[in-house]
Amino acid sequence: MSADELERYDRQMMIEGWGVGGQERLKASQVAVVGMGGLGCPVSLYLAAAGVGTLVLIDEGRFELSNLNRQILGWVEDIGRLKAESAAEKIRALNPDIDVKAVSEVVDEDNAEELLSDSDAVVDALDNWRTRFLLNRVCVEHGTPLIHAGISGLYGQAMTIIPGEGPCLRCVLPETPPEVPRFPVLGTTAGLFAMIEAMETVKVLLGLGEPLVGRMLVFDGSDTSFMFIDVKRLRTCPVCGHL
């Protein structure tokens, strides 16, 4: 690591169990962030600031004015630009010591393996269940940790999926919920759960603390309350039941 990197990451390397060795592990890690919206933008910023060596930013969309209350890597001059490319530019400016790859594609059955299989962790920053369950299946097949969060209005939930160690997303939701094409979103709710996802990602990559494996964190912003819901693996789960 360079002198600049040692200075940049000095305060976080003071955390017990982190040190230079932990920072070098982060530098050698690759994380895919799927979705560059209200969750994906701040997740990517904080993972870049922490020094994750390679970030793969995946989103086929373009910034719209209605995105800007929560998608903080989209600025007025970015309206109409591809989200992944615009976000990657800003993240490179924040931390030029890391590699940032912009992928302006939809994740689907044809490309999911190629896009995700090389990553050490995948962040679910999506707003639809169909693609979430695809990420879940691919990550389970490859033994890749998946950090999930979902938000709506003042509500949020988060859980970390480590294949073979705890339940997967299909254990939690055996039936696919209906898609809601347009739902309310407050930027601070997205920001809060993006920070939780970023912290969970770093914990998983470094082996720090206790990730949200087998526990779903639920937040209700109307009364600022948090609670945990214990979630068990389903031995009959069609995705992870064989592990």
**DSSP strand content:** 15-25%
Total strand count, please?
8
Work out the oligomeric state of the chains in this entry: single chain
| Radius of gyration from the alpha-carbon trace, in angstroms | 17 Å
Q: In a nutshell, what does this entry contain?
A:
By secondary structure, this protein is of the alpha/beta class. It has helices spanning about 5-10, 10-15, 20-25, 40-50, 85-95, 110-115, 130-140, 170, 185-205; strands at about 30-35, 55-60, 100-105, 120-125, 145-150, 155-160, 215-220, 225-230. It has a single domain, classed as NAD(P)-binding Rossmann-like Domain (Rossmann fold).
Question: How would you explain this protein's 3D organization?
Answer:
This protein is of the alpha/beta class and 243 residues long. It has one domain: NAD(P)-binding Rossmann-like Domain (Rossmann fold), CATH 3.40.50.720. It contains nine helices and eight strands. The chain has helices at residues 3-8, 10-13, 19-27, 40-50, 83-94, 112-116, 129-142, 169-172, 187-206, and strands at residues 30-34, 54-58, 99-103, 121-124, 146-152, 155-161, 215-220, 225-230. Strands 3-2-1-4-5-6-7-8 form an eight-stranded mixed beta sheet, sandwiched between helices. β4, α7 and β5 (146-152) form a beta-alpha-beta unit. α4 (40-50) runs parallel beside α5 (83-94) and α4 (40-50) runs parallel beside α9. The longest helix has 20 residues, at 187-206. It is globular and about 50 Å long. The mean pLDDT is 97.
